[in-house]
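Worked example

This section walks through a single chain of length 84. The input is the sequence exactly as stored; nothing has been trimmed or padded.
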Amino acid sequence: MPPRWPRKPDRVNDPAFRKLDDRMNFAVHVAFALACNSGVWFFHNLKNADWNWIVWFSGIWGLLLLLHLLYIAVIADYSVKTNG
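Given that input, the structure is written out below as C-alpha cells.
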C-alpha cells in the first residue's frame, strides 16, 4: 500500500509536502540515472567497446544528480510562505 498524505496535497502552501515531493522526485532521478548508466556500462563491457564518451556520460549525469541533491538539501526554501 502506498503512503498516504494526511491532508490534501498542496505543493504551494504545504512546505512538508513540497519537501517530500522534491525528495521523491530526486529518488526517481537517481533510479533512472542508475538504470541508464548501468545499461550503458553493461553493453560497453559486453561488446568490449571502445566508447570514449561513456566516462563523460556517467560523469556529467552524476554531476547533475549532485547539483539536484545540493538544491534540495541546501538551496530550496521549505519555510512556510506568508501572504503580506
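What to look for: Residues 15-46 form the longest helix (32 residues).
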